[in-house]
């Protein structure tokens, strides 16, 4: 086995924008390598410049194609972009996917684009943490925009809200996603809705349903979508909490032909400007760092607990409990005492 | 407000089999009252005698009616029964439900039966812990059999395996539950399958499908059920891990008329005898107490963490991170230091 590249060399390289160093640093974070924490610690002071964008949507919405088109649009105006494609459903590492993505976007020769896939080697919670850290590395490496793309799968699309400055939720006509959006709480996290494949039948209805959901806060539109047709509702308009002064746009895109992509990029830029002016950016970063802090502390505490509550100790206490010589609460107190020592 | 009954009085009453004391003690555990742990500690030495039976199944299987019929069958032979009906989907406490259940079973005047509903006031994890503790209280109160009934809803039917000596999974014809059983891992936790509403069309097919699943370990039957008809499979029989010497029976019951209920009770008694002879009972109790120990320790550790990581401290550390004067890992280490002090 070749000797691993020293941590400091990776850090220096990453901060210079060296792609190989960046890729290796992300791998160390992904693998939760021994120096993963040290890398994040060292580059943290250089973060906070990039606009962090989360893009989520159900499979079949053409989300990946939209991300590629968006990257192209950014590059056309000279803006550099780092992309993290996170798949919480796949246990495979980024290797193979990475190649596909680079080919797909046609940006393999462009130093202003860096694309990386991440999968769930460390479990769902670990992946969320690793992804948040990888975002910091891309930010520190100097990319102007950092995009994180996740498959809308259960918890993941909610997690994205705690990682990004701006969240784009991608929908498509005829997937029944409007209802899904409400169920999963996507309505609350979306800063921008993109109805992709907008050249398909039903696009107008999807747009209308989303707009009505945004107006009424979800309740009315839920009825509409369940019945599969638009109808008048008497529900009072209960303003959604999209943040003061930002009205969540519903955009139509056709990613394969690039249709509407410039408008999506414009909306992202407008949201970025709004975040900066309103103080929303600092607020979101604060929530993000608070979330990261709590995750790190909890992980450390539980790791310590696992080290203290060895199988031998567990076996010993279970035996005492089975003989009714100690009760579960006293046994737990015994473990806590050992932990505090 | 009337003065609450002193803890010691509840404990003494419960151990004498006083119903009101038992009901109050369960409420304290359910509410996670200050003396909840003390009650469990005090009665623990008196537990380990009852046969703990878990009964789970999807809504619509007639699970509750089956439990009532089973209680009646036990009572006819002089065996006392405590019943805990746990609904992880309902946020409401047992009060109202309790009345319904007592009326329904027609045992309101029988001192040999105690029926109690529990709901999810403490959240899913809290409910599981409270239910496990309530089982201990019913055991200590001297009931010969303690039944825990849960709605088959996600995680709950798996949790039941860590609470009971014997698990009965209730199915019904035509619900597509055979496939659901495999998905949720019910096949692994079932000691007895009861196909209720066995007078309905499709019962024989449900029984056959379950028997084939048990024979093949699930894989073959999954194909069968997906195609909706029985067919020969070449799959090798890969014995399920139902425990050595116990072959999971698939019984037909018609709870409303009492059909097959005596056979279900017999199967439960046979499983109980088998557990005692094979040492399986001690093994399951050990797993159960190990699980309870880990849950208690983890809850205590996380409670301590929450006390240490105050909003003020979080706010302070987030501000330092936002100024890039401290990184997330160093901030986390700071919290851990405070926690250990």
From TrEMBL, chains A, B:
SUPFAM superfamilies per UniProt: P-loop containing nucleoside triphosphate hydrolases
One function term, GO molecular function aspect: GTP binding
InterPro entries according to UniProt: AAA+_ATPase, GTPase/Isobutyryl-CoA_mutase, GTPase_ArgK, P-loop_NTPase
UniProtKB keywords: Chaperone, GTP-binding, Hydrolase, Nucleotide-binding
One Pfam family recorded for the sequence: MeaB
Span of domain AAA+ ATPase: 49-174
Family: Belongs to the SIMIBI class G3E GTPase family. ArgK/MeaB subfamily.
Protein name: Methylmalonyl Co-A mutase-associated GTPase MeaB
């Amino acid at each position: 086995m070749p000797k691993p590249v020293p941590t400091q060399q990776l850090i220096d390289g990453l901060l210079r924008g060296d792609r190989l160093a960046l890729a290796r640093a992300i791998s160390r974070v992904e693998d939760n390598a021994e120096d993963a924490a040290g890398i994040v610690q060292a580059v943290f002071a250089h973060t906070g410049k990039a606009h962090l964008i989360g893009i989520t949507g159900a499979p079949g919405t053409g989300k990946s194609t939209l991300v590629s088109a968006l990257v192209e649009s950014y590059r056309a105006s000279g803006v550099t972009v780092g992309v993290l494609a996170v798949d919480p459903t796949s246990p495979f590492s980024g290797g193979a996917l990475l190649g596909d993505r680079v080919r797909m976007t046609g940006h393999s020769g462009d130093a202003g684009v860096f694309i990386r896939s991440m999968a769930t080697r460390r479990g769902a919670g670990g992946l969320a943490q690793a992804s948040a850290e990888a975002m910091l590395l891309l930010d520190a490496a100097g990319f102007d925009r950092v995009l994180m793309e996740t498959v809308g799968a259960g918890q993941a699309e909610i997690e994205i809200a705690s990682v990004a400055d701006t969240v784009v939720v991608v929908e498509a006509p005829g997937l029944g996603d409007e209802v899904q959006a409400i169920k999963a709480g996507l309505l609350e996290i979306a800063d921008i809705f993109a109805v992709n494949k907008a050249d398909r039948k039903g696009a107008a209805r999807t747009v209308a349903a989303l707009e009505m959901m945004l107006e009424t806060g979800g309740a009315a539109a839920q009825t509409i979508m369940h019945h599969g047709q638009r109808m008048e509702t008497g529900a009072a308009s209960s303003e959604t909490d999209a943040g003061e002064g930002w009205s969540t746009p519903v955009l139509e895109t056709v990613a394969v032909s690039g249709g509407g992509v410039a408008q999506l990029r414009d909306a992202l830029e407008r949201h970025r400007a709004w975040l900066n002016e309103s103080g929303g950016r600092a607020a979101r970063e604060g929530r993000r760092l608070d979330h990261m802090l709590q995750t790190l502390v909890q992980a450390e505490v539980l790791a310590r607990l696992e080290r203290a509550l060895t199988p031998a100790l567990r076996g010993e206490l279970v035996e005492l409990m089975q003989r009714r010589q100690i009760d579960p609460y006293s046994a737990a107190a015994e473990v806590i005492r050992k932990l505090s020592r």
